[in-house]
Amino acid sequence: MPGREQRRYSRKRLEVDILVGSQHAGGECYFESSNLSEGGAFLTSELLLEVGDLFWITFSIPGTQVAVHSRGKVVWVNRNPDENDPTTRSGMGVEFLGLSETERAALADFLARV
Predict the structure, then answer these.
(1) Angle at 92 between CA 22 and CA 54, to 5 degrees
(2) Distance between CA atoms of residues 26 and 41, nearest Å
(3) Selecting from 2.40.10.220, 1.20.1440.20, 2.60.40.10, 1.10.10.410, what CATH number does the domain 4-113 have?
(4) CA-closest candidate to residue 39, choices 107, 88, 114
(5) What predicted TM-score, i.e. pTM, was given to this entire model?
(6) Sequence ranges of the domains in the chain
(7) What are the residues whose beta carbons fall under 8 Å from the beta carbon of 3, sequence distance 6 or more?
(8) What is the DSSP string of the chain?
(9) What are the pLDDT digits (tens) for 12-37?
(10) What would the mean pLDDT of 1-11 be, rounded to a whole number?
(11) What is the rounded CA–CA span in Å between residue 43 and residue 52?
(12) Which of the pair, 6 or 106, is modelled with greater confidence?
């Protein structure tokens, strides 16, 4: 998949509900992540945005009082998962843009514990 070779952060398999909003897309909706890192997430969905689309993103870091409020950018899209491979899913890789140091530190701490 495009973008995988460019990852700066290791990803953890983790399902987190993530609220995504976009004026361009006309509102907001929840997505579920299938993996998460300090730098981004893979959001599983049949509803897909386009590479380069910008939006805001909000989610709570499980087991903490920290909520992440950031911008996000679609960096790659998987529209055609392999029907013979149950580990592939339709969805999109998103990059977090502008996490605060507090958000990034809390996310790194959480990911180190899971």
Answers:
(1) 30
(2) 22
(3) 2.40.10.220
(4) 107
(5) 0.80
(6) 4-113
(7) 75, 76, 93
(8) -TTGGG-SS--EE---EEEEEETTTTEEEEEEEEEE-SSEEEEE-SS---TT-EEEEEEEPTTSS-EEEEEEEEEEEE-S--TT-TT--SEEEEEEES--HHHHHHHHHHHHH-
(9) 777 888 888 876 666 888 888 889 99
(10) 56
(11) 15
(12) 106
Token output for 44: 């599983």
- Is the pLDDT score of 3 beyond 50? no
**Given this model, what pLDDT does residue 96 score?**
95
In the numeric block, which tokens belong to residue 82?
């392999």
Q: From CA 112, how far away is CA 102, in angstroms rounded?
A: 15
Query: pLDDT by residue (tens digit) across 79-105?
Result: 887 777 766 788 999 999 999 999 999
